[in-house]
Amino acid sequence: MRLPELNPPVRLLMGPGPSNPDPRVLRALTSPILGHLDPAFLALMNEVQDDLRQVFQTKNQHTLLLSATGTSGVETMMVNLLEPGDEVIICSSGFFGQRMIEQATRTGANVRAVEVPFGEVITGALVEEELKKKPAKVVGFVHAETSTGALQPAAEIAAVARQYGALVVMDCVTSLGGLPVKIDEWGIDAASSCSQKCLGSIPGMAPATFSPRAIEAIKNRKSKVPSLYWDLNMLFNYWDGARGFHHTMSSTLVYAVREALRIVLEEGLEARWERHAKASQAFEAGLKAMELSIFTKGPVLPVIKVVNIPEGVDDLPLRKRLLEMDVEIAGGFGPLAGKTWRIGIMGTNATAKSVIALLGALEQVLAEQGYYRERGAAVAAAAEVYKG
Amino acid sequence: MRLPELNPPVRLLMGPGPSNPDPRVLRALTSPILGHLDPAFLALMNEVQDDLRQVFQTKNQHTLLLSATGTSGVETMMVNLLEPGDEVIICSSGFFGQRMIEQATRTGANVRAVEVPFGEVITGALVEEELKKKPAKVVGFVHAETSTGALQPAAEIAAVARQYGALVVMDCVTSLGGLPVKIDEWGIDAASSCSQKCLGSIPGMAPATFSPRAIEAIKNRKSKVPSLYWDLNMLFNYWDGARGFHHTMSSTLVYAVREALRIVLEEGLEARWERHAKASQAFEAGLKAMELSIFTKGPVLPVIKVVNIPEGVDDLPLRKRLLEMDVEIAGGFGPLAGKTWRIGIMGTNATAKSVIALLGALEQVLAEQGYYRERGAAVAAAAEVYKG
């Protein structure tokens, strides 16, 4: 019983990630592989670091790719910066904030949550209130909450946290490459992202960056980092130090990220953010034409829309029907399951073509379920945004 | 300052891994990517599990790919099976045994090392001696010690460990796909490997398998697994359970492993082991013709040879010169640095062609350094093995 030839369907990926990678990224994957200690590969790692610093808008020497997916980035920040008993404040306004709480808790740190209902934003004032009660070593938050579509006020939270002497940890998994992320300007001490959303690569790598303050805190730990795989002392010995063996880094995955970063910087960060903003505007115009509403209460992210499922429309059959047309969107998380869709407009799909394909398919499946306003109106509204 | 087009050199990778992947694996990488919850992708995951079970020679339901490199497999086994204060015996006869000790220690378990000098093997009797002193929850060992080239007696160690009620944990990073690995027959409770050595894929994934006994032990933990990313309860909920989101698994990397496993099973495990054994024999014949000796004291692995650097030969310049000819071998680890080379004959490179290319290049660089026996003798000796 041998497996048949690999033949996956060709999806338009409009969920919260992965998004469709650039074809140039796929081509880079087939390049001949290199050993993880080959001088030619070490030179490529340096190049990728330089490009990552540009994309993160940072001068941090300690910038790298982690050999795992985006979830690992938050874990790496937590296990390196926290020790059992440390005080940490985690801001949560959705699934990924709750997950950050869970990842911080598993380090044995004393986690204090600053929580608001799903879909809302955490203000600097809320964080300050908690810091006034008791200081904290670390304040962590999610920049772009993928589960609710809300943009959190990163600069505001970071300013307050720094004022009270805390290290600032940011999950920018969904924002990096699609909207402004300014590590140094905002005063972020540790940030991590992923390769497969707005950066336009494939999944499998987590870009991350650490300020001198963060590195100092890691060097001053009393105990060893509980994970060898995420131990930044060892990782930076490989990336920036004696080049000692730590793990067998995949040249293939680094090629993919390198090509994605080249494309990002060729386009230019500002132009890329504008392209995402325009696609967002077009998609929101389409939603409005269909009389669909957005769940999010605070500032809505350009790159992910959490849309209320209208009454009478059945989530699972609709998404199954979309998939029959090779269009993927995602359902809601946790309390939002069955009530919302999560729709991503990221990377190569932040374009007129992809937004129109998505809206056209959505109009069709909504009509099939008896939800019907004015057929074609959504596509027309989106197309209008792209006129002249 | 934009980066130039990606243009890595085309190396013959004869170090301890990565090895050169099969061209079919590189082709699979360019397949259209799928979301991590797409039914088409979930079906592929099931296929990969079936193939992994065949390659591991196990019926374990709990068999999966971890989204990280081989080093993560050992960490995953340790953080799931051990809790602070647990008794664990780790066998060490080289760098990767010492590393397993380190990974076990970081869980907070009480680690007792059974150690022999680098290059030797650990007998069942040695393990029994330690178990007689005090029982242990887990006995861990490295099947193929990549740093010394020694094959450890897996079945013997496992039998003793089970006799004393311990769970048996095996690192088979270097052996899987290149020599017999028989999880069920030997009584192994947890084993992990990597994608880029004898399996012939690219780096970035760690295949792993867990017996019902191991899963039972994880379910009976008193504390949460300290890592969310490696938490097998959550991972198997994704792989085998409610298909709940855990991390954004890379379809691309799964395609690569799937294609590599297809190739392994098309060839057949026995035939593949024989091919590796023959390439090993050819390479050893070449070494003998050059009067080079093998460092390893115990049974020598077919897939990796740790070779003593002859007196008067300078390690780094020789390897640099080899790399100028696009041939990669590796230096020794730890106490063996500067004294040995580690040479891998794995996957696509366990062939006459690759062994002869390597021996020819080695003869040349050794001659350039004044180490000279009979030019051409090594290639001739290896070629003889492949005659008729």
Question: What order do the helices and strands come in, and which of them pair?
Answer:
The structure is a homodimer of 388-residue chains.
Chain A: E1 12-13, H1 23-29, H2 39-56, E2 62-66, H3 70-81, E3 87-92, H4 95-105, E4 110-115, H5 124-133, E5 138-142, E6 144-145, E7 150-151, H6 154-163, E8 167-171, H7 183-186, E9 190-192, E10 206-210, H8 212-219, H9 232-239, H10 251-267, H11 269-289, E11 304-308, H12 315-324, E12 327-328, E13 330-331, E14 340-344, H13 352-368, H14 377-385
Parallel strand pairs in A: 1-12, 3-4, 3-5, 5-8, 8-9
Antiparallel strand pairs in A: 2-10, 6-7, 9-10, 11-14, 13-14
Give a brief description:
The structure is a homodimer of 388-residue chains. By secondary structure, the first copy, chain A, is α/β, with parallel strands linked by helices. Chain A is built from 14 helices and 14 strands.
Description:
2 copies of one chain form a homodimer. Chain A has 388 residues and is of the alpha/beta class. Chain A has 2 domains: 23-266, 3-Layer(aba) Sandwich (Aspartate Aminotransferase, domain 2), CATH 3.40.640; 268-385, Aspartate Aminotransferase, domain 1 (Alpha-Beta Complex), CATH 3.90.1150.10. Chain A is built from 14 helices and 14 strands. Chain A has helices spanning 23-29, 39-56, 70-81, 95-105, 124-133, 154-163, 183-186, 212-219, 232-239, 251-267, 269-289, 315-324, 352-368, 377-385, and strands at 12-13, 62-66, 87-92, 110-115, 138-142, 144-145, 150-151, 167-171, 190-192, 206-210, 304-308, 327-328, 330-331, 340-344. In chain A, the strands form 4 sheets. Chain A has a 7-stranded mixed sheet with strand order 2-10-9-8-5-3-4, sandwiched between helices. In chain A, a hairpin with a 4-residue loop joins strand 6 and strand 7. In chain A, helix 1 runs antiparallel to helix 10 (251-267), helix 2 (39-56) runs parallel beside helix 10 and helix 11 (269-289) runs parallel beside helix 13 (352-368). Chain A is globular. The mean pLDDT of chain A is 97.
